[in-house]
Write a structure and sequence with these properties.
The complex is a heterodimer of chains A (392) and B (336). With 392 residues, chain A is α/β, with parallel strands linked by helices. Chain A contains 16 helices and seven strands. Chain B has two domains: 182 residues, Rossmann fold (3-Layer(aba) Sandwich), CATH 3.40.50.970; 127 residues, Rossmann fold (3-Layer(aba) Sandwich). In chain B, helix 3 runs parallel beside helix 4 and helix 9 crosses helix 10. Classes of the chains: A alpha/beta (392), B alpha/beta (336).
C-alpha cells in the first residue's frame, strides 16, 4: 500500500441478505385513535381534529368502508367470471381511503393510482365508471372534472407531480383548495415522487402526499424500498410528515384534516404515511402465496379497519341490528348496480380507436383512419359501414 | 418589419403570448433572472413576474409533470428544456402523460403544453448539447412537432404552438439563434400560415430538396450553388414534423420527379425515411430516381472537432442532389 493512500479497506461486503431491511419497523410512533380492539384512545395532538365526529358520522364512515369492500369483492368476482380483464383489490386499505377522502372538500382535486377505487367512490363516481377501464372499454372511466379526481394513474408515482403542478395552479389562482396525491410504498422509490416533493417544498404548494404503505409493491417488501420509515423521507425535503395507523379511519381523518388545514392556509405540503396492509393480491393476476407468509396475513386480519369501528360503536351502544342491516343492504345495492352497469356496458365501435388522439384534426391520422374505414367497409358488413359513417 | 435575431424573435413571440393570455406560464431552468442560457426568455420574468416566468428546480421530469398538473388546472405551460440532450429525464412524462392524457380521458382533459427544445449541432459543444431527438417525438402519437428555420416563422409559430390545445414540441435550431432576419410583428398568428403547413422557400424544377430547422439555410445555399451549375433545386421547409405536410412535398415531387431529404439527425428510423417512403407510395410513377437521404450518421453525437463530418453541409447536400439527378457523385459505380 502506498504510504499516502488514504483509502480504508473494508472487510465485509454488503450482500443480497442485507439488501432488504427485514427489520423495517411497521409499529411504533403511529398516530392511533381507535385500537384494533375498538377502544378509543386519546392523542394529545390529533384528538382536536376529530372532536366533532359523532357516532352517527362514525357509522357513516363504517358504511363507506363496508361498501367499498363490497365493491372490491364484487369486482374480483366479475374478473373471475370473465367480465373484467383485471382488478386491483383494495381490501385492507378501506380506512386509509375513506378516512382521507371523506376529509376532502368537493373543490379539492385528487390524483391517485389505480388502487384508490374507494376514494373514487367517496368522490361520487358513477359505479359503472369504476369498472370501465378494467373491462377494457376505455382508458379512463370518468371525466376528471365531473368529480374533481384525475383518472387513475398506472405509471407508478407519476401522478404526484401532476398533483404538485395542480397545486401550483391553485396557488396561482389564489384559491384555498388542495391537491391530494395518493401513492404507495413502492412509489416512494420513483424519481417522480422525489421530484414532486422537491417542487412542492420549493414552491410551498398546497399538496398532500398521501402514501398508503400497504407493505407490498407486488412481491417486494417495503424494506426493499427504504431502510428508514417512509414518513422520514419527507423530512429530508423539509416537508412535515406523520405516520398514522392506516387501518384506523379516525386517525387517518385527523391527520388528513391537519394537513388540509395547513395547505389551505399557505402552510405548504404535507406527507402522510398511512401504515396499512394489502390483504389481497396486487391484482387479480397476482399470486401472493409465492412471496408472503400466511402468518403475516393473519396478524393484519386482526387489525381490520371495520371490526374496530364496529367494536367501538358497540362499546358506546351506538350499534344496532338495524344499522347492520341497512349497511349490508346498501353494500348489496351498490354491488348490484356496479355489476349491472358492467355487464350492460356497450362495446366501443372500431373507429373509436382513432378518437381524441388530438383535439383538432391531424392529417396523418385522418388518412390512416380513412384507409382503415375503407378496409372495414370492404367486408361489406352493414354494421361496420354504419359505424364508419357514425365516426365521420 | 424589424430586423431581429432568431433568439429575439422567439422572445418577442413569448412576450406576445404572455400578454394575450393570462393562463400562459413559462417554466424552466435558469429562464428567470438569467433569461435562459441562450437568453430566449430575457427580461420576461422582470416584466411578467416570478409567478408567470418560473425558475424551477433542476429536474426535467419534475418540470414536465408539474406542467401536466398546471394544464389539468387550465393553464397553458410553456416548458423550456435547456438542451436537447437533457430532455430524456422528462421523456416518461412526455410520452406517457402529455401525449396520452387527451386520448386517455376521451377529450375531457386538454394538454396545451408547449415544450421548447434548442436542438442540433454546429456550436462546438460537449456531449449532450447538440442532439437531434425529433424522431422520438414524431413517433409518439398525441404530440405535434414543429421546427422553425427563420425569425419570422419562429415569432409566429411559437404563438401558434402555445395557442394549440394539443401538446407541441417546438424545436429551435440553436446554431441559428444569432442569425438575423426581418420580422413583421404585426402579423396575427391566427391568420398566418398554419404551423402544420410546409413552405416552398426556393422554387425550382429539377429536384425537390426537403429540410427543416437548422439545415433549411444550408439547403437554400445549396440551391444557390446548384443554380450556378445549371440545376434548379426547389427547397421545402417542412416546418411541421408531426403531422408532415405531405401534400406540399408531393406536389413538388410530381413537378420535379426527384427527392432529396436532409436533416442532422441520424438516418435509421428518421424523418427522411418516412418522407421517402410516403412520397414513394403517393407518387411512385412521377419519380425519376430513388429518393435520397443526406443525414447525420447513426452515431452518438461526436466530439466537436469532428462534428462537421457528421453534419450534412452544402457539399454533401449537393452530392445527394447529384445522386438524385444521376450525375457523377461520390457513390457512382457503387451497387446496392
Amino acid at each position: 500500500m502506498n504510504a499516502d493512500d488514504l483509502s480504508q479497506g473494508g472487510t465485509t461486503a454488503a450482500g443480497p441478505d442485507n439488501w432488504a431491511n427485514h427489520h423495517y419497523r411497521t409499529g411504533g410512533n403511529l398516530v392511533q385513535l381507535i385500537t384494533p380492539g375498538g377502544e378509543r384512545v386519546s392523542h394529545p395532538e390529533y384528538d382536536v381534529w376529530v372532536k366533532d365526529v359523532t357516532d352517527e358520522q362514525l357509522a357513516s364512515l363504517y358504511e363507506d368502508m363496508v361498501v367499498i369492500r363490497r365493491i372490491d369483492t364484487e369486482a374480483t368476482a366479475l374478473q373471475r367470471q370473465g367480465e373484467l380483464a383485471l382488478w386491483p383489490p383494495l381490501a385492507g386499505q378501506e380506512a386509509s381511503q375513506i378516512g382521507s377522502a371523506r376529509a376532502l372538500r368537493d373543490d379539492d382535486f385528487v390524483f391517485s393510482s389505480y388502487r384508490e377505487n374507494g376514494v373514487a367512490y367517496c368522490r361520487g363516481v358513477d359505479l359503472t365508471d369504476i369498472v370501465r377501464v378494467w373491462r377494457g372499454n376505455a382508458s379512463a372511466g370518468w371525466d376528471p372534472y365531473s368529480i374533481n379526481m384525475a383518472t387513475p394513474q398506472i405509471i407508478i408515482g407519476a401522478q404526484t407531480l401532476h398533483a404538485t403542478g395542480y397545486a401550483l395552479g391553485i396557488q396561482h389562482d389564489g384559491a384555498d383548495s388542495v391537491a391530494m396525491a395518493y401513492f404507495g410504498d413502492g412509489a416512494t422509490s420513483e424519481g417522480d415522487v422525489n421530484e414532486a416533493m422537491v417542487f412542492a417544498a420549493s414552491f410551498q404548494a398546497p399538496v398532500i402526499f398521501f402514501c398508503q404503505n400497504n407493505h407490498w409493491a407486488i412481491s417486494e417488501p417495503v424494506g426493499l424500498q427504504s431502510h428508514i420509515q417512509l414518513a422520514d423521507r419527507a423530512t429530508g425535503f423539509g416537508i412535515p410528515s406523520v405516520r398514522v395507523d392506516g387501518n384506523d379511519v379516525l386517525a387517518v381523518m385527523a391527520a388528513t384534516r391537519e394537513a388540509l388545514e395547513r395547505a389551505r392556509h399557505g402552510g405548504g405540503p404535507s406527507f402522510i404515511e398511512a401504515v396499512t396492509y394489502r390483504m389481497g393480491p396486487h391484482t387479480t393476476a397476482d399470486d401472493p402465496t409465492r412471496y408472503r407468509d400466511a402468518n403475516e396475513l393473519e396478524d393484519w386480519a386482526a387489525k381490520d379497519p371495520m371490526t374496530r369501528v364496529r367494536s367501538l360503536l358497540e362499546r358506546r351502544e351506538s350499534w344496532s341490528e338495524e344499522l347492520e342491516t341497512r349497511v349490508a343492504a346498501k353494500a348489496d345495492a351498490v354491488a348490484q348496480e356496479m355489476r349491472s352497469g358492467c355487464i350492460n356496458m356497450p362495446d366501443p365501435q372500431p373507429l373509436d380507436v382513432f378518437k381524441h388522439v388530438y383535439s383538432t384534426p391531424h392529417s396523418w391520422l385522418e388518412r390512416q383512419q380513412d384507409h382503415y374505414s375503407r378496409y372495414l367497409a370492404s367486408f361489406g358488413d352493414p354494421a361496420q359501414a354504419a359505424s364508419e359513417e357514425g365516426a365521420r | 418589419m424589424t430586423q431581429m435575431t432568431f433568439a429575439r424573435a422567439i422572445n418577442s413571440g413569448l412576450r406576445k403570448s404572455l400578454e394575450n393570455d393570462p393562463k400562459v406560464i413559462l417554466m424552466g431552468e435558469d429562464i428567470g433572472t438569467l433569461g435562459g442560457v441562450f437568453r430566449i426568455t430575457d427580461g420576461l420574468q422582470k416584466d411578467f413576474g416570478k409567478h408567470r416566468v418560473i425558475d424551477t428546480p433542476l429536474a426535467e421530469s419534475g418540470i414536465m409533470g408539474t406542467a401536466v398538473g398546471l394544464a389539468y388546472r387550465g393553464y397553458r405551460p410553456v416548458v423550456e428544456i435547456q438542451f436537447d440532450g437533457f430532455v430524456y429525464p422528462a421523456f416518461d412524462q412526455i410520452v406517457c402523460q402529455v401525449a396520452k392524457l387527451h386520448y386517455r380521458t376521451q377529450g375531457a382533459v386538454k394538454m396545451p403544453i408547449t415544450i421548447r427544445i434548442p436542438f442540433g449541432g454546429g456550436i462546438g459543444s460537449p456531449e449532450h448539447h447538440s442532439e437531434s431527438p425529433e424522431a422520438y417525438f414524431t413517433h409518439t402519437s398525441g404530440l405535434r412537432v414543429v421546427s422553425v428555420s427563420n425569425p419570422q416563422d419562429a415569432y409566429i409559430m411559437i404563438q401558434q404552438a402555445i395557442a394549440s390545445n394539443d401538446p407541441v414540441v417546438y424545436f429551435e435550431p440553436k446554431r441559428r439563434y444569432h442569425d438575423k432576419g426581418e420580422v413583421d410583428e404585426s402579423v396575427d398568428p391566427a391568420s398566418a400560415l398554419s404551423m402544420e403547413k410546409a413552405s416552398v422557400v426556393t422554387e425550382g424544377t429539377d429536384v425537390t430538396l426537403v429540410s427543416y430547422g437548422p439545415l433549411v439555410k444550408t439547403a437554400r445555399d445549396a440551391a444557390l450553388a446548384a443554380a450556378d451549375d445549371g440545376v434548379s433545386v426547389e427547397v421545402i421547409d417542412l416546418r411541421s414534423l408531426s403531422p408532415v405536410d405531405f401534400s406540399t412535398v408531393e406536389a413538388s415531387v410530381r413537378k420535379t420527379g426527384r427527392l432529396v431529404v436532409t436533416h442532422e439527425a441520424g438516418q435509421f428510423g428518421g424523418i427522411g425515411g418516412e418522407i421517402a417512403a410516403s412520397i414513394t407510395e403517393r407518387c411512385f410513377y412521377h419519380l425519376e430516381a430513388a429518393p435520397v437521404r443526406v443525414t447525420g450518421f447513426d452515431i452518438p453525437y461526436p466530439y466537436s472537432k469532428l462534428e462537421m463530418h457528421h453534419l450534412p453541409d452544402l457539399d454533401r447536400i449537393l452530392d445527394g442532389v447529384d445522386r438524385a439527378l444521376g450525375r457523377p457523385n461520390s457513390l457512382s459505380g457503387l451497387e446496392g
